[in-house]
Amino acid sequence: MSQLNLIAIIFTTVLFLQINGDNENIPPKCQITSRFPKSITCVNATINDFKELLDKTELDFGPNTKVTFTDSIFYEITDDELFSNKMKDLTYNFRHNHIKIFHIDAVKHIDVFEYNILDSVTTSKTSSSSFNLYRKYLSDLSLTKNRIGSIDAKVFTNVSIHEINLSANELIDIKSQTFSNMHNVFKINLAHNNLTRLHEYTFVNFSKTSIYTPSKYYGLSTIDLSYNQLNHLEPNAFYNLENIERVDLQYNNLTSLNGAIFSQVNLTVLLLAHNQINFISMQFFENMESLYLLKLTDNQIKTLPSRLFSTLRNLNVLTLSGNPISRIQTDAFDGLHMLNTDFAGNVALSFGELNVPIIPTGAFNGLRMLTRLDLSNWNITKIETKAFYEMPQLKTLTLRNNQLTEIVPGTFYGLEKIDVIDLSYNRLTRLTREMFAGLNGTKFLTQLENENKDTVLTLKDLFMATEDIEKFGLQLILKHNAIKTIESDAFTYLANLKTLDLSENQIQNIPIGTFKGLKFMVKLDLHQNNLTALEKEVLYPMVRLADLNLAENHLETFDVRAIMEHSMNDAFKTINLNHNQWKCDELRLMILLLTENKVDFISSSPEYFDSHNVHGIRCIPSKDDDIEERLTHGGYARQSASGSDVSPELLFINYQKELVQNSKAQITVLIFLCFFYLLTSLLLIALYILRNKSYFNSLRHQTQRNQEFNQSTVELLNVPQ
Questions:
Q1: Which residues contact 365 (CB under 8 A, 6 or more apart)?
Q2: What does 615-668 look like in DSSP terms, one character per residue?
Q3: For the domain bounded by 443-649, which CATH number is listed?
Q4: What angle do CA 636, 638, 644 make, to 5 degrees?
Q5: Residue 446: what pLDDT?
Q6: CA 315, CA 329: separation in Å to the nearest integer?
Q7: Over the range 280-290, which residues count as b (16 or more CB within 10 Å of their CB) and which as e?
Q8: Which of 136, 141, 163, 521 could form a disulfide with 187 if both were Cys (CB 3.0 to 4.6 A apart)?
Q9: pLDDT value at position 508?
Q10: Is 444 helix (H, G, I), strand (E, B) or coil?
Q11: 119, 121, 172: which is closest to 148 by C-alpha?
Q12: Radius of gyration of the chain (CA)
């Protein structure tokens, strides 16, 4: 065993020295790491340098060996010069070289040919039809980012490759039959060139399969012509391309689409965005039943004529945004029965901002499968009756930010499955019953009753039977209009109304009975209106109301207790009372009731704790109300602001303590005042007595003096003369 190990060590050492010795003679411009290299990299090498390398008989190249030339010195690539003998079994990558002439005869040896100064692709003396197609599955030929300005006609004929990338070159014109009889190719990329037109029969005789085509490829399927200067398409430019699926013509200068250019192809994706298209002939979409996605974004289309898309029966996505469309004729979308919302994340029908003042009757006829329609920012002033009549699957209708001043009766006829209607940011001033005619919100209630024919459904039964209110509920958004008046029967047709947003309007009063029948209302937003009062009876019908927003009005009182008592199964959960005209004592009682019933109330920003407030909600104090002042600057409001919880029991006890302390203080002051009054009275009486005593003494002394004087006088008179 020891002898065998010694022999193995000696043999390995000799072999290593031999390989290293050979590598010492290999030109340093071409680097090889072993005798059986999988890759060779040549930098700044010439053809002779590489040929010298190949003469090393000790090196064994396999058919998968890849040779990369970078920054090398070549002027012309030919089959005879470079790809002979051992060279023909290798795969070559040419990046960042100085090659100017490329003979297509060499294509069977090259995978990548990028960043050169190539200015032409041509054939050598050897006919391209005599190519040796021994490489069945040659994948890609990349000639991108060169300076190719011309390609010989039929230069790619019978070349066996799957993808040709000629993007980012300087091509101005492509001759007829430049790409013909290419049995295996399935993608041609000509993007980012300077092409101005496509000739007839540019792409011809692309067979479905060949003996060299893998089963996953079925002939030419993708052509990318984006970012060129195309201004005209010849009628037969795409003639007989049976398997073509995707054509990209975006970012060109096309102004019109005439004739049935794609009538003999099975196109599924057609991209025409960012052109100057202002006219589409009625024949252009003929025989294009297989089209799935059509992109016409950012063109100059002004009118959508009737039945323009009537032959596109399988179209799922249509984009028209960025066009100056000002008119949509009746039945403009007729035939688009498969247009739907979900296709790789794309919106089925998109328009963007338009200027279409009038939506005529039947404008969207034919869109039977569409579930979402966004007409925001269209500058709409009028929608004619039954404009959405043939849209039974529509769930979301957005009419936001238009110029609507009224809704014509019958506008919403046919919307059987509508879930959301957004009319925000318009100019509506009045809500009437006729506006919502056709929105049969009682339909689902009828369905529930039919399912329970043998029983009488009470309100509680209906409540329990519709636990999944999301399935039936309607969201009606009327935010930021100029609504002042709501008729008492305005929502008669909306029995399935779930969310009603009336915020940012000018509503001053809501009559009792306005919300009659809205048993399934969950959210009502009335913030930023001019309400001065809201009667409790107005909200009574909404037994499932969970979220009520009354912020930014002029309310002084509100009966919270009555609303909670009429709430079924404690549905009432959240209320916003901020920025009203609440009295502090009234607001304090409301907060106590809300806290006791575990209803959330939304506090204002912290800066409002520096003014009169209850838990951050501004209020107006009464004249003799010093308790509110202590609530404002004491511990309760600040505890709420800091996030700590205050139980209703503790808050009530503290409040009672305040009342007792206040009463004691008042009694003390009263006793002090009484004592002071009594003491003052006694002092005054004493002073009065003292004053009177001095007077009587003085009078008595005066009387005595008078008596003595009289007596002296009498005695003097009685003295004898």
A1: 330, 331, 333, 334, 389, 390
A2: TTEE-B--TT--HHHHHHHSHHHHHHHHT----HHHHHHHHHHHHHHHHHHHHH
A3: 3.80.10.10
A4: 80
A5: 54
A6: 20
A7: beeebbeebee
A8: 163
A9: 94
A10: helix
A11: 119
A12: 48
Closest CA to 577 of 590, 592, 589, 567: 590
> 3-state SS of the chain: helix, strand, coil percent to 5?
25, 15, 55
Please report the pLDDT score of residue 225 as a whole number. 95
- Most confident of the ranges 61-70, 374-383, 584-593: 374-383
- CA–CA separation, 205 and 241 (whole Å): 8
Task: Please enumerate in sequence order all residues whose Cβ is within 8 A of that of 717, keeping only pairs 6 or more positions apart, or say none.
Answer: none
Write the DSSP symbol of residue 116. S
Alpha-carbon distance of 283 to 306, in angstroms, equals 13
592 vs 70, 597, 627, 669, CA distance in Å? 81, 9, 15, 31
Tokens 């209607």, residue located: 421
C-alpha–C-alpha distance, residues 415 and 412, integer Å: 6
CA 311 – CA 328 distance, rounded (Å)? 18
Q: Quick one: tokens of 650?
A: 């503790």
The residues spanned by each domain of the chain are: 443-649
Q: Are 312 and 306 in contact (CB under 8 A)?
A: no
pLDDT tens column, 267-311:
999 999 999 999 999 899 988 889 999 999 999 999 999 999 999
Residues 155, 190: contact at Cβ < 8 Å?
A: no
Bridge partners of residue 303, in order along the sequence: 327
Quick one: pLDDT at residue 162?
A: 79
Spell out the alpha helix ranges (H) of 331-479: 443-451, 459-465
CA proximity to 123, closest of 172, 80, 171, 69: 80
Range with the poorest average pLDDT among 5-9, 199-203, 264-268? 5-9
| Segment 184-230, tens digit of pLDDT | 788 899 999 999 988 887 777 665 444 344 444 457 889 999 999 99
Cα–Cα distance for residue pair 458/464, rounded to 1 Å: 10
Residue 460's beta-bridge partner residues? Answer: none
- φ/ψ (deg, to 5) at 704: -60, -45
d(CA 299, CA 280): 11
For residue 176, the number of C-alpha atoms closer than 13 Å in the C-beta half-sphere is 7
End-to-end CA distance of the chain: 195
Whether the per-residue pLDDT at 10 is higher than 90: the answer is no
User: Distances from the Cα of 179 to the Cαs of 33, 183, 208, in angstroms?
Assistant: 41, 10, 15
Phi/psi at 358 (nearest 5 deg)?
-125, 130
The pTM of the full predicted model, rounded to 2 decimals, is: 0.71
Q: What six digits make up the tokens of 594? A: 């809300």
- Find tokens 């060139």 and name the residue: 193
166 three-class SS: coil
Three-class HEC string of 352-373:
CCCCCCEECCCCCCCCCCCCEE
Continuous segment of H or E residues that includes residue 586: helix 584-596
Closest CA to 212 of 141, 110, 128, 137: 137
CA angle (345, 251, 332) in 5-degree steps: 60
Cα(281)–Cα(294) distance, rounded to whole angstroms?
15
Provide the pLDDT confidence category of residue 644 given band limits of 50, 70 and 90. Answer: very low
Name the residue among 541, 606, 538, 532 with its Cα closest to residue 567: 541
d(CA 205, CA 219): 10
* 134 has pLDDT over 60: no
